[in-house]
């Protein structure tokens, strides 16, 4: 198949119009129509139903999925080739607790390895590395499109291993959780707290169907969710006021200073933290950043 014809068909399929596709591609309408017709002859199948608003035929639906993938790879190749000429700032994405604990330390190590003096290291990190927050699916998608050069994601360690289309996954560490209690809580006298001791407590968590909820269910009770929040600062304030308890990932423990933090007695939840890198061309510092993350992660594993 001629890739140009495939991409021309893609434009028609998305625009549902030969004339609109021609304008988008800066071609004439007859040229677009001829390319699609030639592609259909080559494949021996109709791709578009011209009598019903240019709807896709079954063959057209199959080819469009491949055409979209081809267009995405061409766009990624164009971005990566442009970056070879003038390497851009290293763009790293991460979920909040990794962005607070792992990534800054890794960036500082990159500066140290480059021989930057401590006084210039922070400014160099901010000037040469862009840090962005996001959810794991969002970050994986942005790595795949070339918008980020490296990202950190996570998943519940008890679930089936998650892979992301178009990116490479590298496991970094397995993280455990701590119980976060209000100051002076009756259970704070314990060195470690069984989850069953929290069955009657009110909870704050990102949702009622996440890793924390599954850990409570595994311990034999349903979490009594009194507030839904993804903001660590808000969560700390609610707990400090004595209104709830929660489980805190070790990477985010520093953000819960002033609370009673205790290990979980017995089996508690765990999550796998991993890096995501694009397939194909990579930023010159991407592997160095990965090495720095491995060194920093050894303190948390």
Automatic annotation (TrEMBL):
Q: Name one GO cellular component term.
A: protein-DNA complex
Alphabetically ordered keywords of this record: DNA-binding, Transcription, Transcription regulation
SUPFAM superfamilies the UniProt entry points to: Periplasmic binding protein-like II, Winged helix' DNA-binding domain
One Gene Ontology MF term: DNA-binding transcription factor activity
Q: Which InterPro entries match?
A: LysR_HTH_N, LysR_subst-bd, WH-like_DNA-bd_sf, WH_DNA-bd_sf
Organism classification, top ranks? Bacteria, Bacillati, Actinomycetota, Thermoleophilia, Solirubrobacterales
Which PANTHER family does this one have? LYSR SUBSTRATE-BINDING (PTHR30346:SF29), TRANSCRIPTIONAL DUAL REGULATOR HCAR-RELATED (PTHR30346)
Full protein name: LysR family transcriptional regulator
Superkingdom, taxonomy of origin: Bacteria
Q: Which family does it belong to?
A: Belongs to the LysR transcriptional regulatory family.
Query: Where would I find the HTH lysR-type domain in this sequence?
Result: 1-57
**Which Gene3D superfamilies does its entry note?**
Periplasmic binding protein-like II (3.40.190.10), Winged helix-like DNA-binding domain superfamily/Winged helix DNA-binding domain (1.10.10.10)
């Amino acid at each position: 198949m001629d890739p140009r014809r495939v991409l021309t068909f893609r434009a028609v399929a998305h625009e549902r119009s030969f004339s609109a596709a021609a304008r988008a591609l800066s071609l004439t309408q007859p040229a677009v129509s001829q390319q699609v017709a030639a592609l259909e002859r080559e494949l021996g199948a109709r791709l578009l139903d011209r009598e019903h608003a240019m709807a896709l035929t079954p063959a057209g639906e199959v080819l469009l999925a491949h055409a979209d993938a081809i267009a995405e790879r061409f766009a990624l190749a164009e971005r990566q080739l442009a970056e070879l000429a003038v390497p851009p700032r290293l763009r790293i994405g991460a979920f909040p607790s990794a962005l607070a604990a792992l990534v800054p330390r890794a960036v500082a190590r990159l500066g140290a390895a480059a021989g930057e003096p401590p006084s210039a290291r922070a400014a160099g990190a901010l000037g040469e590395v862009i840090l962005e927050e996001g959810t794991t699916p969002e970050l994986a998608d942005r790595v795949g499109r070339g918008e980020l050069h490296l990202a950190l994601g996570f998943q519940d360690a008890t679930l089936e291993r998650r892979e992301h289309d178009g990116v490479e996954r590298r496991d970094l560490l397995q993280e455990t959780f701590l119980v976060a209690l209000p100051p002076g809580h009756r259970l704070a006298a314990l060195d470690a707290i069984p989850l069953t001791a929290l069955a009657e407590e009110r909870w704050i968590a990102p949702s009622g169907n996440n890793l924390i909820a599954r850990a409570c269910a595994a311990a034999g009770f349903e979490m009594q969710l009194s507030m839904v929040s993804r903001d660590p600062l808000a969560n700390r304030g609610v707990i400090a006021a004595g209104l709830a308890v929660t489980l805190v990932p070790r990477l985010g423990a520093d953000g819960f200073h002033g609370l009673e933090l205790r290990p979980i007695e017995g089996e508690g939840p765990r999550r796998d933290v991993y890096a995501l890198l694009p397939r194909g061309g990579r930023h010159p510092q991407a592997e160095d950043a990965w090495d720095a993350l491995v060194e920093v992660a050894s303190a948390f594993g």
